[in-house]
Structures are given as C-alpha cells and as structure tokens.
Amino acid sequence: MITLINPRRVPAWAWVIAAACAAPSISAAQAQTTAAQISASQSNAASGSSVVTLPRLDISTDEEEETSLSDAPLTASSPDASSQRMSRLSSPDVSSLFRNQPGFSSYGGGRLANLPVLNGMADDRVATIVDGVRISPACPNHMNPALSYIDPDSVQTATSIAGLTPVSSGGDSLGGTIDVERADPRFARKGKILVTGRVRGTYRSNGGAYGASGSVTVANHLLSIRYTGSYDQSGNYRGGAGMGTVHSTNYLTYNHAVTVGLHKDNHLVAITVGQQDTPREGFANQYMDMTNNRSTFVNGKYTGSFDWGTFEARGYWQRITHAMDMLADKGGHSATTGMPMNNDSRLAGYSLKATIPLGRFHTLKLGSGFDHVGLNDWWPPLQGSMMMGPDTYHNINNGHRDRLGHYAEWEAHWTPRVSTLLGFRNDLIMMNTGDVAPYSWTGMMNMTDAMAARAFNARNRGRTDVNFDVTAMARWKVTDSFTLEGGYARKSRAPNLYERYAWGRGTMSSSMIGWFGDGNGYVGNMDLKSEIANTASVTLDWHDPTAANRWGLTVQPYYSYVHNYINVVQLSTFSNGHHLLQFANHNAQTYGINASGHYTLWDTAQYGKGEVTGVLNWVRGQDEVTHSGLYHMMPLNGTVAVHETVGHWTGRVEMNFVKPKDTVDWLRGEPRTAGYALLNLGGSYTWKMLTLDAGIDNVLNQPYYLPLGGLSLGDTRYIGTTRALPGMGRSFNVSLSATF
C-alpha cells in the first residue's frame, strides 16, 4: 500500500528535524510517516491497496545529505501525531495544532480564529500560508484570519518556522512562517478504481460543542475527485472553578471543498473549489461579534519535474463577505438596535517557484508572487439612531493592497558537514483607498468623525513601499550527535490597510478598529513606514546519532531589533477609561529563547514505547521610545508530556505551565495575569476501520486567565466589571472516526 504525498512540500527529512525540534520522539524509520498518512494507510488497507504515488520530485545534490537549510531549517517544527490528535479533539481551530511548538503562542477572542504569534511577533508579522495562499483578514477586528478558513481534519501538513526564515518561505513578515496544506489528490493503480474516505464525529462537554467532518475520494490512475466537509457548533464555554460562563464564546461554522486532481508521469495538477459559512461567532474581547462570514475560493496548483529541476505554480481567487453586529450576549441586533458593519473583500494572486540543481552540491531557487487584496468596509445606518445615521459610514472605500515579490536563494553544501544558505527578496507593496464618509456631515454627534473624514479626503492616499529581505544561514554538523545552525535575517513588513487608512476619531467609530482585544480605539496613520527587523539567531541541536533517535535537545536563543516597529501613541482618554490610540513607528527590540527535547523512557514488545517530551519558550519585547513592554508577549511557558504507544492504543499525559505575566504594555492597559498549570489527558484506540479518541482538558478545572487574551468585554454587563479573558475550564472530549 502506497500513499500519495507531495515530496517537495513534505520531504522525509523534514519530519526527522521536526522530531528533534518539536519532540515527538519517533524513530528515524517512522519519521517519514505523518499523522495524516497513518490515517490514509488505514483507509488504504480497507480499500484493497489500490493507491499509487507520483514519482518523487527529488533534486538532492548529494546522496549523503539528510536535510536542507532551505526546506527544513532547525527553526522549523511540526506537531507530532499524539499532539495533533489531542489538538483536533480539543478545538476546531487549526492554530491549536501548533500549541506545543517552539516559539509559538496565539490569541483571539473567537474560538475559530486565533491569531498566531511566533517569537513575540503577532498576526500580520507572521506569514500565515494556507494551501500556498496568504489570506488577509477582511475585518477591522481580524475576526477571519487565514487559519480560520480550513478545518483541522483537512490539514495534511502543518509547519511553523520561528525566527530565521528562508526568503523562499515568505516575505512581508517579521516573526516567521506558519504553513498548512491540504493533502494532495490520491490516485488508483492503472486499471483500478479507488473509492476511499473517512468520517468523524466529535463532542466536547464544555460549551456543549459537537461537530462532524468527512471526506470521500473517487479516482482512477489519471483523475481524482475528492470532497471534504465539516460542521462545528458550540455554546459559551465555562471558565475554571468559580469563573462561571464566559459570554460571547459561541460559534457555528460549515466548510465544504472539492478537489480535482490530474497527474501524468512527474506532473500533477490540482484545483480546489470551496466555500465556508460561519453564521455566527462570538468574540469575548471585542465590542462586536461575527454575524456572518462567507468565503468562496478557487485554488489551483501545478507541480512537475524536468531535466533541469522542478517547478511549482499556484493561482487563487477568493471572495469574502463579512458582517458584524451584536449577538444575544451583547444585547442582540434588529432593525433599530445593534450596530451593523459589513465588509466585502476580494483576493487574487499567483506564486511561481523553480528549484534548479547547479551541479552536485549547489541548488538555486527562483520565485515570484503577486497578491491582490481589494476591500470595502462600510457600516449601514441604524434606523432611528442619531449617532449611527442617517448615512452610511464608509470606513475603507475601494481600498486595495497589492504585493509583488521576487526572490533568489542559493544553497551550497561545501562538505558533508557544512552547508550555507543565502537568499535575497524584494517586495513591492502598493496601497490606496477612496474617499470616506461619516454617518453624518452635519450632526453634532458626528462632528469629530466629519472633521476627520474631511482631512482624510483632502490628502493624497496612495502609498508604495519598496522592501528588501536578506537571509544568510550556515549549518555545521560538528559531530554525529551535535549540529550548530545560525545566521542573520533582514525582514520587512508594510502596514496593513487598517493601520494606514482607519480614520475615525470618535469614541464609537475608533473603538470598532483593532484586533488586540484591549477595549481601546485605534486610528490609522498614512505616514507609517515599513517595519524592518534585523534578527540574529543560533540553534544548538543535540541528538541521538543512531537510527533509534532515543533522545534529542534543541536550544534556540534569538535577538531582533526592529526599526519602525508599528506601535501606538495615546491621543486621548475616553470616559470609560480606555484610550484613543494612533499607530506610530517606533524602534523596538525582542529577544528570547526556545527549547525542546525528547527522551525515550522505554521501548519493549510488552509495554510498547514510552516517551517524555518538553517545550520551553521565553520572550521579552520593549518599545525603545516609550520603554513599555510590547503588546502580546507571552510569559515564560512550557509543556511536559509523557506519551505511550502499545499496539493499537496510544495515551498522553500533558502538563502546561505558564509563569505570571508581569511585563505588560501600559499604553494599552494590558492586564497582568497570574501563573497557572494545566493537566490534560488523552488517549486513542484503533480497531479495524474505527478509531476512538477521548480526553480531558484542564482535568483539575483550574481557574486561570489567558495571558494574551486581553479583556473579557462580553462579560462586563453580567458581572459589573471588566476582567481579563478567562481560559476554558474542564472539558470531557470524545470523537469516533471511521475510514474506508
């Protein structure tokens, strides 16, 4: 039985490095099998082993090479099979797959839409790629980020690169890259018909959440057609002991996608068409909730190998219609109540990548990409309201952000133990927007916004940023059990549309802008410059030199100095104690250390294999102008887990530790949070085509606040005060899946 994978996207050595960095502790022989492939293997066993694989697009220049600096730096990691199972069982959010990866944290008020943080760099500072596409949030609160457009069961590969990032892994970002990808199409052997699939049902007790997902593939040796779908729903969750219900945390979402694949010889074409509908999603740390989000997309991919090397081409189109208002927890909405806000976004683009061997020991990568984002953001008038009427508020009027990027990357293997990587990248970002308008040009309640709109419309709003990135890395295999990797990167990011063009200065209008969950109001700044981060990092990797891979330890210290870091200045203070803030360029620095390790405790026929794994992350950030802490810096945190596999049964005991958050951004009123420790249990059993997964999150029902969660604005009307956002209390989770 053979499964189809994309060898350029998931090379075998990537999983060996992920095993050392992310601590899955799998053997070298097992390292070539991902969790998704294990599931596929079970499916193939049930379908008569009629699946074939495309020939590998192998461009290695030295048979002794095991890893590539470009495709698998030591800063890259992927979740192991045990962690993936627990994440999928606990949450419908794809960002949860990375929860135990070095340098990773996340934040957000919605349970489908957490925003990623790598080495203290959050959201837009991370290049988040889904099926080769950079999806920009179509919302002033970033309620619909890239990872919200794919369900966890559809993810085949998930990789995070924290810190030094090859230029081929994305530009217009500072902190690193998050890359998730669906599985490539599967095909039957010639003369055979393949019918295979899976179904899965999940229940989570906290919030009464339940969901279902599934896929089915029908294929011959040339053509493959696959349908995938998912459904997830939950009510509000409860915090730990004594914290009660956390309001505005409910959700409902549907995902549908059809993938058609064609292959011949060394060439593969895959086209995916899909739609996501999210009729509602509460956001506990925002004034608004999502009342509808519909995304329709087309994504095409071609990969092929030639005598001169390999080539990959992608193209995509996506339309997002997004609506915000207040769900029942915040008072609900009707023709005369609430506050309707609408967005219409269109995205389109392409990416090209050629990988060319230059002799036996050198490889050249050349790439080009273009991303277009068009955005309309308008707020219809509310019937009978003097503040929100009588006209439509135009927040972003026919705005666009176009990015054209090119790169060249050279990897050289000077000896079997020494290799280098040098890459250059240029990104041209062009932005503009049309005239804007307040709810009223004459009303006293809208005078502040009317004056701001006139000033905004009087200016030339077109902006062009010309950015350059450089990455220089070297790897030295000092001994068979110790590898040293390090280097320097210059990374740049241009402002997003809201950072430049949000213009309202009234209390209500400015408070609708912001993806920080802090209750403040935000105003854009057309004069913002691009951020430029200079990062130096070194990774020390100790590992078992034998094929058993019984132990490993990776330590990565890093330092970044960011010119023109987009932070804020205070303009005024509202009557509710929150502030009107304007985006502004400051210099800033971040520094920290990530560590991960694994050790095999036992490996016997009677007791199976037992492993202990661990991850430790620490980061600090400081604004060099205000001398405050940077926002959304995760305090010292770590995870220790013991994982055992015996026959068809696997089990995992996990402890998460978080130190108190004492260093905060006082400009934004970021809350301090206490430290905590959470105990999680999980296990699974496979019998023929069925797999039962069960787990308990927060076994001791520990009460705690999320260090990056911001303020729980949805609870204020119920408890009479504004508190930090509580984390989830105890939850009993179970799922049953079947493959055929």
UniProtKB/TrEMBL annotation:
The lineage of its organism: Bacteria, Pseudomonadati, Pseudomonadota, Alphaproteobacteria, Acetobacterales. Residues 61-94 are annotated as: Disordered. One of its GO terms (molecular function) is siderophore uptake transmembrane transporter activity. Residues 1-31 form the signal peptide. Gene3D superfamilies: TonB-dependent receptor, beta-barrel domain (2.40.170.20), TonB-dependent receptor, plug domain (2.170.130.10). PANTHER family: OUTER MEMBRANE PROTEIN C, TONB-DEPENDENT OUTER MEMBRANE RECEPTOR. Residues 75-94 have a biased composition (Polar residues). Transmembrane segments: none annotated. It is a multi-pass membrane protein. GO terms for cellular component: cell outer membrane. The keyword Transmembrane applies. This is TonB-dependent receptor. Residues 78-177 form the TonB-dependent receptor plug domain. Pfam families: Plug, TonB_dep_Rec_b-barrel. It is found in: Cell outer membrane. One of its GO terms (biological process) is siderophore transmembrane transport. Belongs to the TonB-dependent receptor family. Residues 239-699 form the TonB-dependent receptor-like beta-barrel domain. It comes from the Bacteria. Keywords: Cell outer membrane, Membrane, Receptor, Signal, TonB box, Transmembrane, Transmembrane beta strand, Transport.
